[in-house]
Inverse folding.
């Protein structure tokens, strides 16, 4: 279903909390999705411990890290 939605040019916010309980399954699914997203020139990023963002072709996610210890 995820691949079908990406092929339809939809952005997906995927909840992985249930899969996180099975690390081997989670790794296999994410590795498979990475290959698929790379082939279609999309992007994938982990938002937090329970969510992954997947984008279709030509939509990139800008990935930045917050500086540790700085609150603004």
């Amino acid at each position: 279903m995820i691949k079908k939605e990406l092929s339809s040019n939809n952005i997906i916010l995927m909840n992985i909390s249930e899969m996180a309980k099975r690390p081997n399954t989670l790794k296999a699914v994410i590795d498979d999705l990475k290959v698929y997203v790379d082939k279609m020139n999309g992007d994938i990023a982990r938002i937090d411990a329970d969510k992954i963002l997947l984008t279709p072709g030509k939509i990139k996610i800008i990935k930045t890290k917050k500086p540790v210890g700085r609150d603004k």
